[in-house]
Specification:
8 helices, mainly alpha, two-stranded antiparallel sheet, about 150 residues
Length: about 150
Amino acid sequence: MIYNIKNKPYYFRKVIATILDYGLLFAVTFLWMVKYGEPNAEGGYTVTGIYALPPIIFWYVMLPGSEALFSKTLGHWLVGLKVVEVSCMKADFIQTFKRRLADLVDLFFWGIPAIISIRNSAHNQRLGDLWAETAVVSLQDEKERLETTGADIK
C-alpha cells in the first residue's frame, strides 16, 4: 500500500537538526585536523594523504549512512524527525546520498533555497528531497499515521 505524506514544514526542527548534525561533523573534522594535520602558512592545518579519508568516511556514515539504516541522523532523532520516501517507505542509501549531496545547494545562502523549496513543494521538501524523492516527517505524525492506518514502514 502507498500512503500520501501529509506533513508540516517543520522549519525550526529541520534547522536545529542541520545545525546539530553539521556542528558535530565540523567539530570532529576540526579535532581530526588538529591531531593529524600539519600547520600551514594561514595559521590553520592541512591534512593530506590517507589522513584526509576519515572525515569523508565519517560524513558518509553519519549522514547518508545513518539515514539509510535508521531513517534519521542524530540531529533528526533529537528533534523528532525522520527521512522517508514520498511513498512512506524507508529511504535507501542512494536516496539518502542524493539528498545529502544536495546540501551544498540547499544550505547555500543560509538555507534560503531550502526554505523556498519547502514552501513551494507538495510534501514540504527541500531540493535534495525533491531530487531523491524523499521527505522529512515527524516521528509523532508517523506514529499517528501508522496507528490510524495499521500500516507498517518497510
